[in-house]
Structure formats: structure tokens, C-alpha cells
Fold each of these.
Amino acid sequence: MSHGTGWRQRAACIGIDPRAFFPIGHHARAQVNAARRICAACPVRQQCAAFAIETGERNGIWGGMTQQQLRQRRRRFTSRAKTSTRAAS
Ligand code: SF4
């Protein structure tokens, strides 16, 4: 991932090959686990996960979450947003 500005400058993955967070192939499970170990120590996990959910990232490990976990969070986020929109109108 790019580490341009803001929270990204404090990311634990700075200097790590971004491909480590986009697992593919036969070793994908091991890559996912390795990426999640890095994320576990990251001080900006929450910001990273929120960014991925809000921008609809469809690939990679973000905030220590797999794509399946991100999809579940995104669904909850979307359904909460719809509920609050309805409540406000
Ligand atoms: S949570 Fe993981 S992918 Fe996100 S910035 Fe931190 S180390 Fe990088």
C-alpha cells in the first residue's frame, strides 16, 4: 500500500513489500497469517480497516482483516448507514 500522508506514515507495514498484503497462489494462507501478524502490532489498524471499508477495497489484508472479514464489516457499515439515513428522514 502507499504510505503517503496521515495515518499511513505510522503504519507497521512501511518498508515491507506490499505484495505481502495481497496473498495469492499456493502459499496464500501462510501469507495471510504473516500479514496479519504484522497488522496485529500496527498502531493504525483501525484507520486502515476504516479506509478499506469506506473505499471498498476488494483485495488484500487491511487492518489485519481478510477480505471475508472486511466484507462482513462493510455490510454492517452499509446497513447502519441506511438505518441512520432512514431514522433522520
Ligand atoms: S493494519 Fe496492516 S496493512 Fe494496515 S497499515 Fe497497519 S500494517 Fe499496514
Amino acid sequence: MDMKKQTKKIVWERSKYQMFESFANELQEFTKNGTVPAHADQDAQYCLELQQKRLKEKNLELEYVITPRGLFAEGGGIHKTWSDDRYASRMEYRTCRLERTFCRGGKPVFRESRNMIFYQTMTEAWDSQAVSEDLYACPNCGAIRPIGVLQKGCPYCGTHFEMSDLFPRVTSFYFIEDFGKTQKELKRSIWKTLIPVMLLAMVCFTCFFYQDPEVGGQWLPSILRGFFAGILGGAVFGYPIWAFRQLGAMVKNAGKAVPMLMNTAGSGKRFVTKMQKYSPEFSYEYFSGKVVSLLKMVLFSKDAQSLPIYAGGPSDDRFADLVDSSYTGAAALKNFRVHNGQCEVTVDVYLENIYAKEKRVFSKDEKIRVHLRRDVSRPLDLRFSVKQIRCRQCGGSFDAVKQRNCPHCGSEYQLSGEDWEIVGIEG
Ligand SMILES: [Zn+2]
Ligand SMILES: [Zn+2]
């Protein structure tokens, strides 16, 4: 093979200007040593912390190893963007290999390695003036203060922040399986089939020639003839075997995807058109990212009813054993209606979930029906966070996940339409 043609190894480096790569590194580190990704926003961090707690309860350690590969290892493709009056979001993706290992007491109990498309949604502020009144949790001490105040110096810890220390932030992320192969991967997969077939053919042909009266039981000429016949025969038989296996894999993957496509076909477009009547900045990428993050929060929470974004019944016991959850990229709109200024939506979200039951760790494809609600008379806030709440009674700020009641005036916090909330989940 021509060595010059081989592409250099791509490495995702951490840098101030490479949000995507920085976050990918932080996510790996988080699974190794528990350092919360600094480039993730408060709610995304909280979601990771909830999952980490669940893993600890189950006596498991989960490690992610993310290796760039494939057609979009260095980015590219079209990035979707959307915005409200103060914030702009952008969805970026790269192709990579994701290796997930679950360990118990340092011993691997479940491992999965797959080619993935890694999606990240990043949210940025339009300009510092417009958002100076908005709340932000001090990245150093966690105190919740307006952005303008944090820029002058946090009143609690004294740290000054530049706008670039606060934005952009990763507000949601997920991995979707990548069935595409690069030329190099395709070649490697051909050789992986051809070489064993050729070796087998060489042995068979050698034995055949050895018995042939013309060669008459001599090893060397039999091996020589067998060698060339094996290469030829291996290629002739091996290639159809490889092609057949590729076809089998394609049918298998398509079989997996068909029920989802049937459900989702057109649902994204239909939903977005309807929703945009109520909030013009609405997009499918925004909504699916939101649903996935909210759902993960609820599924990993020990007591979902304590979450401000959840207004449903007590948590389903079934999800108490959930240790990792991946969105497959398919979500189907089942129901949509606007009633008294409240928008009610039912979506089926397709997930690949990993459960830990007693000693067993296993993966399961699941469809979860989620009922959501939002007050559409209020404008959409792209950076709404349950970790940064302003009390409607007294204006005080607090973390609504840590406490339901305002620490300043004691009134109970109710999300009631400030953002999407989950009102029910069906397994
Ligand atoms: Zn501070
Ligand atoms: Zn209050």
C-alpha cells in the first residue's frame, strides 16, 4: 500500500477555539475521574452527575473512549443553527468510534465499541449587553448571579469572568450510530474476510496437489502450486463471501431502522411547522435535544418528582436499574395540541438503554413515550436552566434542583410554562 496516501492520525485537541473537541475530551475525563465538563452548561452537568450517582449505586464504573474516525472526523457537513432574541444555538457533529466499558471493581463486565456520529448543541449569547440581566451560576463557586455582575466580579468568590469564560456552552449532546465506512475501513473489512479464505484455500489446494499423481507426493511443488492456487481461489470465493456478509449487515441494520423510520417519516417537519406558529425560532434539533436531556434527567433521578422539570407520577421502578441511555436519533410525534395557551406534545423516543440488574449488565432497544407541556404564550428561552431560577415572588435567585422553595421568601417554585416539562412517561 502507498504509505504517502495514508491519512495522518486525527487527534481531537482541547483548545479555547475548539469547543467540540474540548468537550469530547472533558467527557472522557469525566468518566475516568469524575471531573465535571467545564464546557457543559449547568443542566447538562447535572444530568451527568445524576448518571454518575446511579453508576455508583450499582457499583459500576463507566468509561468512554472516543477516537475520531470516518468521513467527518474533523468536522464539516452542514451545521444547523437556531436562535431566540438573546441566544443562538448551533448543532455540530463529528464521526468517531465510541468505546464504552462498564467495570465492576476494576473488572470489565460489559464492553461495546461502535462507529458513531457525535452531536453537540452549543449555545452562545448574541451580545453581552442583551444578556447582562440573565442569571448564570458562577463557574467557580456556583453562586447564581446576573451575567453582568459576574463580569464585574462574583460577590461571593471575587472571580472575574470574561464573556468567553461563560459562552458558548454545550447544552445537549448525543451519539447516533454511524453505518458509513471510509475507504480504508472498507478495504480492511475486505482483507479480514479474504485472508482467512485464502489461507484455507492454500491448505486445501496443497493437499489436493500432494495427492495428484503428476506431483506424486512431493511437498515443495505441492506447496508452491497450492500457494498460487490459494490466492486465486481465495479471491474468487472470498469476495462473494465478503459481499454477502456486507449485504447481511445492511439488511440487519435496515431491519433495526425500519420501524423507526416508518414512525418518524415526516413527523419532524410536520411538528416544526405547527410549532413555529407559536414560537418562530423553534426547530426540530432544538426540541429533540431538549427532550433527550429532560428525559435523561428524569430516568437517572432517584426521585423524579423532586425535579422541577417533571410533573408526572412517581418514578417507574423499571428505570431504577438504568445505567446508560443513548438516543438512537429517532423520535416520532404521536400527538400535538394547543389548549388554553398550553402546548401538549406526545413523542416516542427510541433509545438504546443499558441496564444493570444484579450481576448482569445488558443492552436493550426501547421505545419510551414521553408527554410534554409548555406554555406557548411565553417566548422560548434557549438557555433556560433549572439550576438558575429567578423567584417570581421576590426576584431572588436559586437552584431549583437543590431546593423547591425560594430560600429568600419561602414560596414554592413552579416551572409552569417557563420551559418544556415532562408530564408523564410510559415504558
Ligand atoms: Zn463565585
Ligand atoms: Zn422568593
